[in-house]
Amino acid sequence: PDMDKVEELIKDENVKGIICVPKYSNPQGISYSEEVVKRFANLSPAAPDFRIFWDNAYVVHHLDFDGKTDEIPSLLNLAKENGINCAVETSLVYFDERIFTKLDLVMADLKIWDDVLHKEYTGVSNEVIIENFRKLDELGIPIIARTPVIPEIEQGIDKISQFLKGLKNVKQYE
User: Which residues of 13-37 are buried (b: 16+ CB within 10 A; e: fewer)?
Assistant: First the structure.
């Protein structure tokens, strides 16, 4: 992105955020340079509720161009060094304690309690998701848990709610 333009636009308090895909960004497939990531970490927006949505889907999965993968610096590390609160929205299918321990908030879905139905509708078991909720709780990380309502599917919301009540760091259930 044109960081000079980003830095100019965020002087307006009506600008509330920016969505970034820092690695293999569409449509060109470019990855952000170290300088660009550092400039994002040092932004000083006028809006107190300004958010950077850092959609780093390729942090784990890499595209291989000529035997090389792009490596970008961690905005999370740089933001924490600058005293910026950090949150993530995740499916909790993947868990990396090195990442989660740096977060101030995790938002995650528990869509369906029944594992067979969960696999049928999402393609993955909910067992790892439930276990990762427990891991987050043990680490003391605040959690906003969500169950998106899916019409005509018995999601087991009562069972999900009971499970979440047993976790001490669930701050909100939506």
Answer: eeeeebebbbbbeeeeeebbeeebb
CB 17 within 8 A of CB 53: yes
Each residue's pLDDT, cut to its tens digit, for the chain (174 residues) gives 899 999 999 999 999 988 888 887 777 778 888 899 999 989 999 998 888 888 776 666 556 555 566 666 677 888 888 777 888 888 888 888 888 888 888 999 999 999 999 999 989 999 999 999 999 999 999 999 999 988 888 899 999 999 999 999 999 999
64 contact partners, CB below 8 Å, separation of at least 6: none
Q: Are 19 and 55 in contact (CB under 8 A)?
A: yes
Distance CA 39, CA 146 (A): 33
